[in-house]
Write a structure and sequence with these properties.
The protein is built from twelve helices and no strands. Helix content is 79%, strand content 0%. The two termini are 22 Å apart. The protein has one domain. It is mainly alpha-helical. The protein is elongated. Helix 1 crosses helix 6.
């Protein structure tokens, strides 16, 4: 099957998933409600404690990039759960009977979830502005920050696609993903400055790719640490944009073929 045909098939699958969101708007509502709640709770419950001198204003600016990173990573789990649901309902079997590229099903699914993340980021940005967050950098820097977040989320969605085809049960996918993603997004610089973490946790957080994408976005937005301290000397946080892109590239190189192979195995049963 030629590349043009594969791209057309991927577009068709992505369109099908977006139409599903339109017809079941609850999917988008609950996807956006969770990060909004995180912004409001962390901004006003922890902001005053972490940044008492500034009344939490500095922390609210610091927080938003971390919430963005956490949300797009958690949003990638929709890919795995959606594919597992399609397997369970027999929709994947229908795709299999059509003359379409196997990779197009996964590519279409991951692409539609990137577009879903775009909508979520827009809603979260507006919420951030309401609680006092501001973009201090240039418009181009801010745009690049959003692109890095979406690229990293797209890479993670291919891991979730592999899990979704490996474990064809939406409930198991959600539980398994939560166990892995929860510590990755919390043992990082997403919600607290790294200077507050003890030694072993700080080392892990410094090399955690979630910390890198958060640091990259935070730097590009021009948001400062509310607790100035010694800057991390880890290469990953000295070059967060490059580190994020390297992780994204490695994940895509590994998991696009692995997920596609798992799709073929799952549909040949």
């Amino acid at each position: 099957m030629n590349p043009a045909s594969s791209l057309s098939d991927a577009y068709t699958v992505a369109r099908r998933n977006l139409i599903k969101i339109k017809r079941v708007p609850d999917l988008l509502v609950f996807t956006t409600m969770s990060p909004i709640m995180f912004i409001l709770l962390f901004a006003y419950v922890f902001g005053g404690a972490i940044d008492p001198a500034g009344g939490g204003a500095g922390y609210r600016e610091f927080l938003i990039a971390g919430i963005f990173a956490q949300t797009v990573v958690f949003g990638a789990t929709i890919t795995g759960a959606g594919l597992a649901e399609d397997v369970k309902k027999g929709i994947i079997d229908r795709f299999r009977s059509l003359p379409m590229s196997p990779s197009a099903v996964l590519a279409g699914r991951t692409l539609s979830d990137v577009l879903n993340n775009v909508i979520v980021l827009v809603v979260m940005s507006l919420t951030g502005l309401l609680v006092g967050w501001r973009i201090r950098g240039s418009a181009l820097d801010a745009l690049w920050a959003y692109v890095l977040l979406l690229v990293f989320a797209y890479a993670i969605s291919w891991i979730m696609a592999w899990i979704g085809m490996l474990v064809p049960s939406p409930e198991v996918v959600n539980n398994a993903s939560f166990i892995v993603i929860f510590p990755l997004t919390f043992v990082a610089n997403t919600f607290v400055p790294l200077s507050t973490l003890p030694g072993p946790l700080r080392f892990f957080a410094e090399w955690n790719p979630v910390s890198a994408v958060t640091a990259a976005a935070r730097d590009l937005f021009g948001n400062a640490d509310p607790l100035p301290g010694p800057a991390s000397t880890a290469w990953s946080l000295q070059h967060p944009e490059l580190y994020t892109l390297l992780w994204s590239a490695v994940i895509l190189v590994i998991f696009i073929p692995v997920a596609t192979a798992q799709y073929r195995r799952a549909t040949s049963r």
